[in-house]
Design goal:
The chain is α/β, with parallel strands linked by helices. It has helices spanning 9-21, 26-32, 46-52, 58-68, 74-81, 86-91, 140-147, 165-170, 184-196, 246-255, 279-287, 306-312, 321-337, 373-387, 392-397, 440-448, 455-466, 470-487, 493-496, 500-503; strands at residues 72-73, 95-98, 101-104, 107-111, 114-118, 155-159, 176-181, 202-206, 218-223, 259-273, 292-303, 342-352, 360-363, 399-401, 406-415, 418-428, 434-437, 450-454, 491-492. Helix 4 (58-68) packs across helix 5 (74-81) and helix 16 packs across helix 17 (455-466). It is elongated, with a radius of gyration of 26 Å. The structure holds S-adenosylmethionine (SAM). The site of S-adenosylmethionine (SAM) has 24 residues, from helix 7, helix 8 and strand 7. S-adenosylmethionine binds next to helix 7, helix 8 and strand 7.
């Protein structure tokens, strides 16, 4: 099998024409498999997939070749791949011929209303080992970064583009997208995918780290970087040029100089946890003094012993038990040598500010992937910028609203024959799921925040109801109110009233 994928626009047009001719798209695939989706295209469901594509139609052959990864006869291939001659498909290195059978060298999968070329996933059950420069398909981390929203207006950067999916999505709204990758193979695939999907505002560049964008600035940076902490296991798609989590640190420490004022960065990340430092302190150290507001959310942490197997599981094809044990030992020892007790996985959102140091808020609960997290980040960052200009008097004059995703939860325990409220918390169910314990009287006041009356008016009402001193009460309330604004439990009216586009 050759190693280069074609960059000949004429050939790529021919490939697209063949796939369009059989209406090879997500809708057709879902229809073909009676409602099942690509998620079910795993090795376990191969018998089912083959059965469903046994009709011999040209669409069956295309699905077998590019989605399932199984071979078809030469005559079926000629029928399905035409009008472009089979020889040209072979010269393009998209398919190979073995005797009377044709097999695809890569996958082409309908994704996000596009067709995306990438290397075959292990789930296709192929026998050849994964290449060191394997170009991965749409992984869980890819879906997650996309679900965070790929905000893109103006100039956007996709760092570590792989097959180019994130760049292609950003290209729908950005004026110009730059996509970079250290892997020549990934660059070829991403360029192929821009041509296959007729996207002309993505500039794919080869290079290490931020070298290909030296001296440039972007309105948005999105990255699903190779964040895996491992001994050098040889896979470029998951391990960068560092021993531990220095790539994530590198991105954070260099981001500001590549972002325009108010520019944003969204990224997936893993980071090391050592006994000397909490993860929150690690992030605070990386961000220290940076002109960046930051939201970091940890979704889970794998202890040292569980982390290697999480990744090795998918590499174990064809391994003997001894190989597997040796690889596991090397990985476990690598983490031990770096004093890593566990590895956290999470997401990061940054927003460039003027040259003053930014704010960091950390979250530890799972993200609600159905929520419009991008809007949540945008509002919260805008709110922080405004909050910085507000003294206590401004907080008291502010009108606030409880966003619809925030509710009040109370827990009661049975005591002496009756329910007794033991805990009240504000819980936000959108963006980052989080909660904060709250006192009953403040909870009452938060509930009154309807965007119409100021905090001072509400505080006076509360003082009357509690028969408390109004001045002392409002003074006591300000720090909590400020904190609720910082965490997004309360929205400042100025932010609430403005369309998102203006806040970006
Ligand atoms: C996890 S993959 C992400 C691919 C794609 N963006 C996605 O989300 O599916 C990370 C990508 O970063 C690239 N990469 C690895 N080391 C790099 C480096 N030092 N500089 C730039 N890119 C790098 C890999 O080749 C790979 O394509």
């Amino acid at each position: 099998m050759g190693t280069h994928v074609t960059n000949d626009a004429h050939d790529i047009d021919g490939i697209r024409a063949a796939l369009d001719a059989v209406k090879y798209n997500s809708e057709t695939i879902v229809h073909h498999f009676g409602g099942s989706t690509q998620a079910e295209m795993s090795v376990d469901s191969k018998p089912y997939l083959l059965r469903k594509t046994s009709g011999g139609s040209t669409l069956d052959s295309i699905i077998r070749l590019f989605a399932i990864g199984s071979s078809v006869s030469v005559s079926d291939a000629i029928r399905a791949l035409g009008p472009m001659p089979l020889e040209r498909w072979i010269n393009s290195n998209i398919v190979s011929r073995a005797g009377e059978q044709v097999i695809a060298n890569m996958c082409i999968i309908p994704q996000y209303d596009m067709l995306i070329l990438h290397d075959p996933p292990d789930s296709q059950g192929r026998s050849e080992p994964r290449r060191a420069d394997h170009v991965m398909g749409i992984a869980a981390s890819t879906k997650q970064i996309i679900s965070l929203g790929v905000p893109a207006t103006g100039r956007a950067l996709d760092f570590g583009t792989g097959c180019g999916i994130v760049a292609l999505l950003m290209a729908r709204s950005a004026t110009e997208v730059v996509a970079t990758d250290i892997s020549p193979r990934a660059v070829e695939f991403a360029r192929f995918n821009t041509l296959l999907n007729q996207v002309d505002n993505v500039d794919v560049r080869l290079g290490n780290l931020f070298e290909p964008i030296a001296g440039e600035r972007f309105d948005h940076i999105v990255s699903n970087p190779p964040f895996v902490i491992s001994p050098n296991d040889g896979f470029m798609y998951r391990r960068g040029p560092f021993e531990s989590d220095e790539l994530v640190q590198y991105i954070v420490e260099h981001a500001a100089k590549y972002l325009t004022p108010n520019g944003t960065l969204r990224m997936m990340a893993q980071w090391a946890n050592t006994p000397e430092q909490t993860w929150q302190d690690r992030w605070a150290a990386w961000l220290d003094g940076q002109p960046l507001d930051a939201i970091v959310s940890e979704h889970f942490a794998h202890p040292r012993h569980a982390y290697p197997q999480k990744w090795l599981k998918s590499d174990s094809r064809g391994h003997t038990t001894e190989d597997y044990q040796a690889a596991w030992n090397a990985w476990y020892d690598h983490l031990g040598a770096l004093n890593i007790e566990s590895v956290s996985t999470g997401i990061v959102a940054l927003s460039r500010r003027d040259n003053t140091a930014g704010r960091l808020e950390t979250f530890t609960e799972n993200i609600d992937t159905d929520a419009d997290t991008s809007a949540y980040f945008t509002r919260l960052f805008a709110q922080w910028k405004l909050l910085d200009t507000m003294d206590d008097e401004a907080i008291l004059r502010a009108r606030l609203r409880v966003p619809s995703e925030v509710d009040l939860e109370s827990v009661s325990v049975a005591a002496e024959g009756a329910w007794k409220v033991s805990d009240i918390a504000l819980r936000s169910q959108a963006g980052l799921v989080s909660f904060v314990r709250i006192d009953g009287p403040i909870a009452t006041l938060v509930g009154w925040c309807d965007g119409k009356r100021s905090v001072r008016e509400l505080s006076k009402r509360l003082a009357r109801e509690m028969t408390a001193n109004a001045v002392s009460l409002e003074r006591a309330l300000v720090p909590s109110i400020r904190r609720f604004i910082e965490r997004g439990y309360l929205l400042l009216e100025e932010i609430d009233q403005r369309p998102l586009e203006e806040l970006r």
